[in-house]
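Why run this: before we spend reagent on co-expression, it is cheaper to look at a predicted model of the complex and decide which construct boundaries make sense. The entries below are exactly what would go into the expression plan.
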Amino acid sequence: MKKSLYNYILGIADNSLILGQRMGELCGHGPSLETDIACTNISLDLFGQVRSYYQYAAKIAGDGRTEDDIAMLRKEREYVNVLLVEQPNTDFAYTMARHFLFDVYHLLFLTELKKSKDMTLAAIATKCIKEVRYHQRFSSDWIRRLGDGTEESQNRMQAAINDLWTYTDELFHQTEADKAMVSEGIGVDVTKLKEAYYEKVNTILEESTLTIPESKYFQKGGKMGIHTEHMGFLLSELQYMQRTYPNMEW
Amino acid sequence: MITTEQHIDDILIPILEQVSDPEIPVLSIMDMGVVRSAVFENSIVKVQITPTYSGCPAMDVIGDDIKKALKDAGYKSEVELILSPAWTTDWITPRGRKALEDYGIAAPLGVEADKDVLLHGKRLVKCPQCGSTNTKMVSQFGSTACKAQFQCDDCLEPFDYFKCLK
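The model came back. Tokens follow.
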């Protein structure tokens, strides 16, 4: 039970950590000052949320590990985020498409997590959901602007959706920790979110003159610690300070 | 059990009112609604604060500032960060809203008006400089996560709008 809960929390938190890191990479590199600030603010929200989760995980582990240890000192295979969130920032269409495809899931997920029997997780979800609503507005807005924009922006956004679509199915795969926590009334049954997810994504893509690709092939592995080639590079930057100056603190 | 009531000992109110939000120095943490309880327990003041946003970098500073203010008043204290019930802009007091406006930050509108402004580009936010509502959103995220960036089309000044959080 304790181990399942710990793994379950990491399954939620790692998504936000890795996506937060990707959004944070845009600091000083955003396409305009406003989007730069927006992306880094979203990153800050995600990191704040992650702290609540890891603090709770550290308390459950009860072996002296801190939130920082959990965030910074695991090996690649020990991170259990979905492949979607670790995909790199290429052009802005790609960055926004990745964020949007996660936001829609994130909001549905948190809405269910609010009902968790675990009071801490329910409290974190209640807090996070207010922030994630703004994230989803922001990314949906960009899907519309670029999708229903110029020929160039439309092509790029459609290309981004086509590329990233292959990572969406994994969001709805249940891990062992998921199953254990669902049966306890603590976890969210992600398989049940799929229908609402496709409906929401489809509505916004249609409004944006974009389409869901027809490909039926989906990538998976992140939830089991098997990541794409981008993950190692991401972690080397994320973990740099802790690896270079072990145990450093602010 | 979730309660939205505040429990703050009367003696402590003036002390806590002196502590300001480090990012909006004109606003006391009391007017911000960040302090949820402050009571004596065995001669130690136990204070519970709640973050406005999860990633709010001001929380650590606020915690330290509270301890310092209480220490200066001769009290020992412990500060705890709580997440539930989650903070909402409804907890900003009328005095706090006025302080925001005086400082140049537009105070949050109601939840529906907020949506109209942020999603549909309606001109409802009052410019804190000249009072005109002929204002437009420049970016959904401003200088901090809790604010959006606006511009007034009458006096042309840019300003922050404190987003509604419910």
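The mean pLDDT of chain B is 91. Strands of chain B lie at 7-8, 20-21, 24-28, 35-41, 44-49, 76-81, 105-106, 135-139, 147-152, 158-162. Bring this page to Monday's planning discussion.
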